[in-house]
Fold these 4 entries.
Entry 1:
Amino acid sequence: MASEEAVIATNDDAAQCKRYAVEKGYWVDPYISLMISKGTAHHAPEINRGYYARITSIRILLEKFIRLTNRKCQVVNLGAGYDTTFWKLKDAHLTPEKFVEIDFAPVTSRKCHHIKSKRPLLDKITNEDEDIMLSQSDLHSANYHIVGANLVDLAELDKKLQQSGIDRSIPTVFISECVLVYIEANKSAKLIKWISDNFPTAFFINYEQVNMGDRFGQVMIDNLKTRDCYLYGVSACDSLQSQMQRFTSNGWRDADALEMNKVYNCLPQSEIKRIEKLELMDERELMEQLFSHYCLVWAYKDVNNIGLEEIDLSQS
């Protein structure tokens, strides 16, 4: 697995990028500024549009899952970092029965500190009838949980999910944003299979690199190496087919995948027109090249046939 410190640094970078894009007006998130301090770096328009497409497409799939289950479901965010999805779902009255975030203990410790020290974050997770249990790296409330764990340690993961009160019998969606790529492919396959073996009704949303065998992909890999950050799981990112196969060969009924160029074109076009007015872009080809090296993958297994195969990016 990639060095813990280097992977944690990528979380900080991603959070800074999201805050920057929010401040530029790409989407509304009143909580990201409470999680991460304002950075000094300027981010190019193609980066901001990429984060917009990433955040928006994941939100569409997640909200469709929650609505399909009438909120009688669970969300497990793998490598959640400083993600603010729980608070935004709360504002939208789409809170699931359980929302669990998992990351390295140094990340969850800092997030717990942010939450307990900032009322807008803390107030959203408090319940008059229940106390919040807080340790250095874990937080447990009525329906929101943060736990520190290493995703390759399945025994530890199992223990932490049990401590969070996860019910394996109800529909559960797992979210992963550029997380599995830092784990050796055989170990991420074991994680994917473990989830499939333990959750009969499950949905998995994975945002990650793709088409990494060309020159652009190699430059991306080399740039991360200079930061002591190695993409040990990049073999699964060879193509859309390999991205889907990692699920279908490990117990999932079916999977779909789209390059981010196609995802971008699936998003509400009124919103696309709005965000494209926020910043001028000199070379659209650079954005399209970048987008061709990221993808959105979703997989499902649906023992009770509740309709998970119907979830996609369509606007119906």
Entry 2:
Amino acid sequence: MTTRCKYDTTNILVVGTGGQGVMTATEILAEAAIALGHDAKKTEVAGMAQRGGVVSSHLRFGQKVLSPQISPGTADVLLGFEAAEAMRWRHMLRPDGLVLMNTGRLVPPIVELGLYDYPDDPVAEVRAAGTHVVSFDASAIALELGEIRLGNTVMLGAIADHLPFPAEVLEQCVLQRFAHKKPEIVDMNRRAFAAGRAAAAEALRAAPDAA
């Protein structure tokens, strides 16, 4: 089943930790929206991003967008590159919003510093709040494909069927990023995108809160 945003302006919040490609993923999503004629605005907040700190990136696109900032309770999709970060940002979702969550565990430094207790089961906690969750291990998929950095492409594949435009438009923007690289790099990202799309579709079918 494919889920599409039904609002005039699409609000996507991407969260994770430094080094996971959160900002790059948001840039690619914005490029896809702009390629189809949308007005797009984005903003990022990075806390020690290069050291693995928490990162969040807001993206809004539609016919006319005045501000990049997503207000609490208005995000259509929360794309969580890290499970606990997705849980921490759940309040940003619409009541009928969707969380796409990577279950691969990457503990942020704020946990190691004792500023935050890592939850035992972030997915269960988000579901317990009544939120629609699609979860799968994007990190494991990336490693199976031979490169952990493919995780952001896997996650872009996961969101591809939950946007108000064809998945192929987003895929083309992803691959364009690597057009100057060796052909095998382009192919790895093509496979990562397809794997993320398939994993999200399977997780959606299996989710206990599936509509």
Entry 3:
Amino acid sequence: MIRALLVLMTSAAPLAAEVPFLALPLDCTLGETCFIEDYVDADPGPGTKDYTCGIKSRDAHRGTDIVLASHAAMEAGINVLAAADGLVEAVRDGVPDRAYSAEVAKDVQGQECGNAVRIGHENGLQTLYCHMKQGSVAVKPGDIVATGTPLGQVGMSGKSNIPHVHISVLKDGQVIDPFAPEAGQCGTDQPQLWETPIAYEPTGFITAGFSDNVPSFDDVRSGAARRAVITRTQPLVLYAYFHDAQRGDILTITATGPDGQAFEHSELLKDPHRAMFRASGKRAPNTGWSKGDYRGIATLTRKGRLIGWRHADVTVE
């Protein structure tokens, strides 16, 4: 029933001025327990730009991604909320929560939105909520919901590799950017559809990955540095590639494995560049790393406020 939802998500379109009507569609606090990672792609061609002409989007990205502070938060259960009063038009549940990869792409073809809910609103707009946790969808078609009604919980279903909700705003089958509904210009001084205006944050991660040495910037940018598997005797290194950090931001890099924490490193960024990377790691212990799966987390904070995080996984064999 909800398969057709993705067909609606065509190019972004301008919208005549509307009264702001959207509440945050997640039971979280921006900068504390969640953050915005990606915005609508405002470039109609193969390029990418967000509504400020910045780079916090992905090619053909048709919504706003609000990410939880951790996988543990997802497991604990965080509600996805109706952003406005409306009528539930379509739902889907039953798509597994798992990290998207080339191996699972075929399984989610046509279900990239994952477990989802679409709501129609009196102003003629629709909101679409994607990637909810399997088995959590709490509404059905025909239900009338008020702003803040729980629709389900944040998950990682469909084309997703981080716990988040993707919300799209639609008008006559076209995507509307809630941060710039009138489109056609760049900047943060535009009217928004959010009841409480949300400040733009230019800083974000591009990628993170494990390697078996401290990589070069070229190898980080090209992806050549990434390792999916290392041996027990090789160094374990986590790198983070990010952009638009500010002086005084704190980057924290940690890695955990079968025996607990493998290493942790925190760094105060004193002179950040537009795009930069940092790497930290550890040589293998004399007895070698324990075999198994390791997860790395890179986090950026600013005066105690969460700016973003990115994770990576590697297997020691």
Entry 4:
Amino acid sequence: MIKTPVLKKLNPGFGSSFMVRQHADNREIKNALWHFHPEVELVYISEGRGKCHIGNYFSYFNHSQLLLIGSNLPHHGFVDRLTARGKETVIQFHPDFLEGLSVKIPEFSAVSNLLERAKKGIVFGENTKKSIGAKIELLAEKEGFSRLLIFLEILNDLAVSEDYLLLNVDGFVFETSHKDSVKIDIVYKYMHKNFQKEIQLADVADKVSMTVPSFCRYFKKSTNKTFTEVLNEYRVVHATKLLTESQLSVTDICFECGFNSFSHFNKKFKLITGKTALQYRKGIKLIISE
């Protein structure tokens, strides 16, 4: 079952302004979290299969992947299976990392623009992956100033690349204070626990000690979506997981995800993913069989 979006606290190691993590193994991730954090995240997967859920963007991948995820943009764990040759490298850094440099040093202006675009989520194409992937993997072997120089070069390469796609054109970012993030977390935990049944706005508002009108305004301001829209998206994400990982019929999945009308489920599923549930399942089977 997909976990609730939680605020994750990340801390780079002593003497470093950014984090680098890397692993290379055959594994299956069962407990990846749907989460967000203030840090920008760069993810490079050299080979593998997995899910890609960033904000409102849903996809599966069957090869390499290079993603840049902006501050407070909700996302889900990526890799389901890595091949013996595959590696996943994750770099995380605070958006203030280069604060002020674009003004003092003109060469950094392109990187600042890159981080602004990253608020929507970016997936880079094949040419960029080929030219930058090896540099990203090299970061795990470097330390100190040498690591910093390579990282700045990577950011600049990404900044000037035209081989990319923005994932959330309409935006999906938690522009919140820490206090607001705690409230959002309470809401999502309640949603996670109850999404398979009918949820009343009054019950959700009560969880964060707000009136229904105040809660609706607050939630729309925080997520750029109404609570009902996010709840439907959450249910559809769970449906994509069941379509991929279970043998349940599409009808059974509809009701398992909290929809009380099959026609309503089909309408929302296609609106959010661009496909019907049956088309989605057939597409996943083709990917897995390749």
